Amino acid sequence: MEYNYQTEKEWRLTRIPVEYEATYHMGDISGEGIITDVSEGGIAMRVNQTFIVGDELVVESMISSNLILEFTSEIRSVQGNILGIEIKEIDPDLKERFLNHIDGILRMHKLDKRERYVT
């Protein structure tokens, strides 16, 4: 299906299912989680702690043997123990490598950058 700017609200950045171990911290709170999907704008992460929308986390994860992510983020949604996390601050070089990594996965699986999203 082809992206149409006139129906933009029905589309989102393609989310790629993954399973990456991650660590996070917010002030004195820290823990481990599993990143369950990635997109160009953020991640979903399964955790065993309670957070609310608006909390800011620093997240670190080795997503490939040559790419270790570290970024500041904001929780945009909470569904049970799954956090929808928007990347807020990331080193520009690291961001470029992350976007290239995602682009490679999208091309490998013949996926578009955007996918239909029905609420």
Describe the structure in brief:
By secondary structure, this protein is mostly beta strands. It has 1 helix and 8 strands. The chain starts with 10 loop residues before the first strand and ends with a strand.
Would you kindly provide a written description of the structure presented here, covering whatever features stand out?
The protein is mainly beta. The protein has one domain: Thrombin, subunit H (Beta Barrel). Helix content is 14%, strand content 53%. It contains one helix and eight strands. The strands form two sheets. A six-stranded antiparallel β-barrel has the order 2-3-4-7-6-5. Strands 1-8 form a two-stranded antiparallel sheet. β2 and β3 form a beta hairpin. The chain is globular.
Topology:
Blueprint: E1 11-13, E2 16-26, E3 29-38, E4 42-46, E5 56-64, E6 67-79, E7 82-90, H1 92-108, E8 114-116
Antiparallel strand pairs: 1-8, 2-3, 2-5, 3-4, 4-7, 5-6, 6-7
Tell me, what is the CATH class? Answer: Mainly Beta
Q: What is the beta-strand fraction? A: over 45%
Determine the number of helices (DSSP H or I, runs of at least 4 residues). Answer: 1
Helix content: 10-25%
For the termini, the CA-CA separation is 18 Å
Taking pLDDT < 50 over at least 5 consecutive residues as the criterion, the unreliable ranges are: 1-6
**What order do the strands of the largest sheet run in, or round the barrel if closed?**
2-3-4-7-6-5
**Secondary-structure element order, N to C:** EEEEEEEHE
In total, how many domains does the architecture comprise? Answer: 1
Instruction: Specify the overall morphology.
Output: globular
| Gyration radius over CA | 14 Å
Assembly type: single chain
Main β-sheet description: 6 strands, antiparallel, barrel
